[in-house]
Amino acid sequence: MSDAASFERAAVDAAHRAGAVLRRRFGEALRVEAKGTHDFVTEVDREAEAAVLGHLRSLFPGHAFMAEESAPSAAGGGGYRWVVDPLDGTTNFIHGVPTFAVSVALEDDDGLVAGAVHDPLHDETFHARRGGGARLNGEPIACARPAGLDESLVATGFPFRELTNLDRYLRAFREFVERTSGLRRAGSASLDLAFTACGRYDGFWEIGLSRWDIAAGALLVLEAGGIVTDAGGGGTFLEKGEIVAAGPTVHAAMVGITRRHLV
What global pTM score does this model have? Predict the structure, then answer.
């Protein structure tokens, strides 16, 4: 396998393998460990991650891997790196809230190549490859194009791990409350981005994220005709862990708010 379509299929297959673990274990009593402030991991995270990495390493032994619960591995060549979140929405999962996903993305020296976000409880798989468009269960999807922010439903996530940024975030939050038709916070950034890619949300913004939270979802939005930047409107969203993603009719207005309060 070496073409983008094959990489996309591999991302989907790997996400489904992890999703089967999550679906089977959802609702069970779990051993929960704290990794940091408001940051948790369970044996299910690790089991799902092993399912993803085992499958991808068997296909691409020379690729590098960055996964939430494992130490990064170096590439053997080719410049490819898989970025994996085996359970995006761990806190939801722990509490029995049915909003979580598997996120699998591939990067090369030119950026994002392929990715998949899989919601195992609702049997929805959002997937994309560079230059190939974005799809939901095989059907093409596209970002919404509302006339303006006042008509937009926008998603966000709270900076619960980085409380030093809370005041700045809340100033931006207030302006979004005042200027949009509604805000949602579901607790899974990869699903927020997937929902933006298919038009359920008109945009999404968040800070304090990790690369594995947003890599696959960012590609979905880009391939669905949207725009993805950091809070200041630049291209360093993966490095900074902050993101503004939306269709082209409202992205600039969203960045106007985040730049004013978060940069």
Answer: 0.94
